[in-house]
Design brief:
Blueprint: E1 6-13, H1 31-39, E2 41-43, E3 46-47, H2 53-62, H3 66-69, H4 96-101, E4 106-111, E5 127-131, E6 142-146, E7 149-153, H5 157-174, E8 179-188, H6 222-234, H7 243-246, H8 251-278, E9 284-290, E10 295-296, E11 302-303, H9 315-318, E12 322-325, E13 334-336, E14 340-341, H10 344-353, H11 368-372, E15 384-388, E16 391-395, E17 399-404, E18 415-418, H12 436-453, H13 473-480
Parallel strand pairs: 1-8, 1-9, 2-13, 3-14, 4-5, 4-8
Antiparallel strand pairs: 2-12, 5-6, 6-7, 9-12, 10-11, 15-16, 16-17, 17-18
Helix pairs in contact: 5-8
């Protein structure tokens, strides 16, 4: 019986595709990822399903939309003292680690979790090494939860998690056990305080004089100012949103951000070298991607998620890197232009391992036919869908349509972009009568998609409620009444 393939899913935190050399960035130093791209399949049109860490991680691990699994925003670590010891946002859902473990895979989370209680493993994970917080406050000096042991780790978190990942790979290879390693690095992040602190990594000197021309220097947009003011007024914590306004012109922050990407590249290189050293590169599918994109000045803001009002889902903030490689399995050097989603990682892994049939009503699509040159006749519409609370998006090779939730009182405007000719998405055609038929057709596709896959209990547009909290709680209370409030799923236990 042939050996089941190992799976390594390497995740970064807050990174748009354009911050890698293999995606055209001439200032960034990412030799290992560039080499991986040349050996494997690179997706130029991969997009995240949401603009926040927690929803995207939930979607990758379940194959479901936020309007299905209910995680619509970041899981608030400040509430952790209220959580039961075993609370996790994906409790009760089918997940990659659960599916793979049921078929004999050794499973490990090594890195950032951000989907619930870090002190105890989520269901399906045999090996559990993670950070105290989902929010990255520093790349150094982190408290670690390591399979029941708690300790402070003074070094760089990327190096630490890479070494832990290598140890897991070595252990399972020696035992001849197929494994699933989920390696979500807490870098490059791109937010203060992590990127504001003094850079201490080995790539600092490389960027010391870098002009950072690959970062747009533009004036702040009104949507960013409005978003900043709203989040500041609604925040009960000591969060510093000023970085959303100042970061694009802070060279120290920009250079620190790029240096952390190079640290990630080092980690990827060490993982690849380990596979080669152990002779298991032929048996291992390596996937590199991220949770969501990050606007680095494009459209007049720095950030993602709810950094603007209404939410900005433009390409810079949602286009993610995605590279997949397995010796003898994937095409060498293929650049796919098909529209794909971070959610598709779920179905791809299930399909490649053959461990389970995907349940009905899950929108994740297997990318295996693309990777292997298989039959794409069942691929369907070449489109990808995203949501960020009050904004939903359909993207095709030709168009991007942003539909805003509106009860007649928000004043939010829909957006339509001819991305075939306007790749930066700067000219809104939604109000132009000449494009009314195109807008209507895309609106119909978008509506039908969420009608098919959305579930009423988690669909904010139908009065559903999120797990933990919402970034637009005033909007939803206005729409659905003062009784509307997030559901804390652990309350029902």
């Amino acid at each position: 019986m042939p050996k089941q393939p190992n799976i390594i899913l390497i995740f970064t935190d807050n990174q748009q595709a354009a911050t890698l050399g293999c995606y055209g960035n001439s200032e960034i130093h990412t030799p290992h990822l560039d080499a991986l791209s040349r050996k494997g399949v690179t997706f130029d049109n991969a997009f995240c399903p949401n603009g926040f860490c927690s929803p995207c991680r939930a979607s990758v691990l379940t194959g479901k939309l936020p309007s299905q699994h209910g995680v619509h925003s970041w899981i608030d670590d400040r509430k952790s003292n209220e959580w039961p010891d075993d609370w996790h946002a994906l409790d009760g859902l089918n997940t990659l680690p659960k599916a793979l473990k049921s078929k004999g895979y050794a499973t490990a989370l090594v890195g950032k979790y951000h989907l619930g209680q870090p002190t105890s493993p989520a269901e399906g994970f045999d090996n559990w090494v993670t950070l105290e917080d989902g929010h990255v406050r520093s790349f150094y000096r982190n408290k670690i939860f390591d399979n029941g042991e708690v300790y402070d780790q003074p070094g760089h978190s990327v190096d630490f998690f890479t070494d832990k990942g290598v140890a897991f790979i070595e252990e399972q290879t020696a035992a001849d056990t197929p494994f699933f390693l989920y390696l979500p690095y807490p870098a490059p992040y791109g937010h203060w305080p992590a990127t504001k602190e003094t850079d201490e990594n080995r790539h600092t000197a490389r960027y010391a004089d870098c002009p950072m021309h690959s970062i747009p220097r533009r004036g702040l947009s009104k949507a960013a100012v409005d978003g900043f003011m709203l989040r500041s007024s609604e925040s009960s914590a000591h969060l510093d949103f000023s970085m959303l306004m100042r970061a694009p012109n802070d060279l120290g922050t920009l250079r620190n951000f790029y240096s952390q990407i190079s640290m990630v590249d080092d980690g990827v290189g060490k993982i690849i070298a380990t596979l080669d050293r152990l002779g298991i590169a032929d048996d291992t599918l390596l996937i590199f991607t991220t949770d969501h994109g990050l606007s680095t000045g494009e459209h007049g803001f720095w950030g993602h998620g709810a950094a603007t009002l209404p939410s900005n889902l433009h390409r810079a903030a949602h286009n993610i890197p995605m590279i997949m490689h397995q010796n003898g399995v994937t095409f060498q050097g293929l650049r796919s232009k098909l529209m794909v989603s971070g959610m598709d990682v779920f179905a791809t892994i299930l399909d490649h391992t053959g461990v389970a049939q995907q349940e009905a009503g899950v929108p994740s699509r297997s990318l295996l036919p693309i990777l292997t040159g298989g039959d794409l006749s069942d691929w369907g519409a070449d489109a990808v869908f995203s949501e960020q609370e009050e904004t939903r998006v359909i993207r095709t090779p030709k168009w991007a349509y942003f539909k805003r939730f509106d009860t007649g009182t928000t004043g939010f405007q829909d957006e339509l972009f001819d991305v075939g000719n306007d790749v930066s998405e700067t000219l809104n055609l939604a109000g132009d009568p000449a494009f009314a038929d195109i807008k209507a057709a895309l609106d119909g596709q978008l509506t039908a998609y969420f009608e098919e896959y959305g579930q009423d209990h988690a669909d904010l547009w139908k009065g559903g409620v999120p797990i933990q909290h919402s970034e637009r709680k005033k909007l939803w209370r206005k729409a659905w009444g003062d009784s509307w409030q997030p559901v804390y799923s652990y309350d029902a236990k």
